[in-house]
Design a protein that fits this description.
heterodimer, A: mainly beta, five-stranded antiparallel β-sheet, B: seven-stranded mixed β-sheet, four-stranded antiparallel β-sheet, 13 strands, 52% strand, globular
């Protein structure tokens, strides 16, 4: 199946720092999604991107849909303790109404006291 | 509250036993999905259903079965043929908006372990 390369795999930062993570694909996608997962819970949608070049913000989070449609990045500004968790990118190509998501392997964010 | 409910939260399976994981949604979504998550990995698609009485295999369907008799319910059975069932299982659903496809939203998962 399709592969999504997500980097970095893990990040250790101090509170207040900005964070940047990205996903690249060998195939083009029509939709890019970013989710956050806390331990023992399901992923929660952060940002959805539907158009190449689109830049969307959700509070301190900003994500962009790459022009080539093969990549996306997520930035978090001024990190706070509740940002800790695993962030996943996901891409999809609608196929006759059937949408299947391909997920990245996740970026684990840890805040160092 | 509207949402996706998975039960149980934790489940234990004995060797050779089939177990069924429940997923219910009251969002009136047509599409529902089952994913498996292993440590350090992304989510992998097991089965999905776009409409009642229809479902399709995902990337790792072997050893699993599903049914979709009602719009709000999409149970997953982990059969004895699945030799490595220990994982975190996530159910998702997706609705249709005026702008087209909407993102998938997830339940809180069921953690399955082998006794």
């Amino acid at each position: 199946g399709q592969q999504l390369n997500q980097s970095p795999q893990s990040m250790f930062i101090q509170e207040g720092e900005d964070v940047s993570m990205n996903c690249t694909s060998s195939s083009i996608f029509n939709t890019w999604l970013w989710y956050k997962q806390d331990p023992g819970e399901g992923p929660v949608l952060l940002i959805a991107l539907y158009k190449a070049g689109e830049l969307t913000s959700n509070g301190r989070l900003t994500a962009q849909f790459g022009i080539t449609r093969k990549d996306s990045f997520l930035n978090i500004s001024a990190s706070i303790p509740s940002d800790v968790g695993i962030y996943f990118c996901a891409g999809s190509i609608p196929n006759f109404g059937n949408e299947k998501l391909t997920f990245g392997t996740g970026t684990r964010l840890t805040i160092i006291p | 509250d509207g949402g996706i409910t998975q039960s149980p939260k934790y489940l234990f399976r004995k060797e050779g036993q089939n177990v069924t994981l429940s997923c219910e949604q009251n969002l009136n979504h047509d599409a529902m999905y089952w994913y498996r998550q292993d440590p350090g990995q992304g989510l992998r698609l097991i089965y999905y259903s776009q409409i009642v009485n229809d479902f399709q295999k995902g990337d790792i369907a072997e050893g699993y079965s599903v049914s979709r008799e009602k719009k709000e319910s999409f149970p997953l059975t982990v059969t004895s043929a699945q030799k490595n069932p220990t994982a975190f299982y996530l159910c998702a659903s997706r609705g249709e908006g005026r702008g087209g496809n909407q993102p998938q939203h997830f339940g809180d998962g069921t953690r399955l372990s082998i006794l």
